[in-house]
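Reopening this one. Same input as before:
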Amino acid sequence: MPTKKTAKKSTAKGSAASKKPVSPVAMTSGGPLTGKVTKNKYFTTKQLKEQLNRLLLLRERVTGEILSINRDSLSSNERDPSLSDQGTDTFDREFALNQLSNEQDVLFEIDEAIRRLEKGTYGICEMTDVPINIERLEALPYVRYSIKAQSEIEKGMGSTYRPFGSSMHGM
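Same output, byte for byte:
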């Protein structure tokens, strides 16, 4: 009987050891990110792997910033309210929430770029289907659009997007 237990233990260890290690890329709401690069016709495998490394480093940095913002927000809430101005606290909280929202948006874009790397569509403009300039990808590895397409998008926003509403026109 003891030999069977030993055999079961070694089998369990063997099956756990035979499983592939978990990727350093985190699981997100869109499913697991494997970090595998699929070649496409515009970029070499080496370029794509370099971009994946950039994205993973950026993802790690942004995740750290998110954790830092959360930690700082919690520590500021533990202060004695009599020692600080309520208006300043409100401003600080709103600033931290805006910063957190921006960092989460970037994290989402990074994860989407990693998915595009996995599908073989990375570096291809989602609007025009032309390759995005590699220098642009090196500067912003998670971009979805070529410079020309991004410019068109921003021009389109300019005619319809008014950050202060229509009340500012008469001034």
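So the earlier flakiness isn't reproducible anymore. For the record, Residues 41-159 form a domain with the Four Helix Bundle (Hemerythrin (Met), subunit A) fold (CATH 1.20.120.910).
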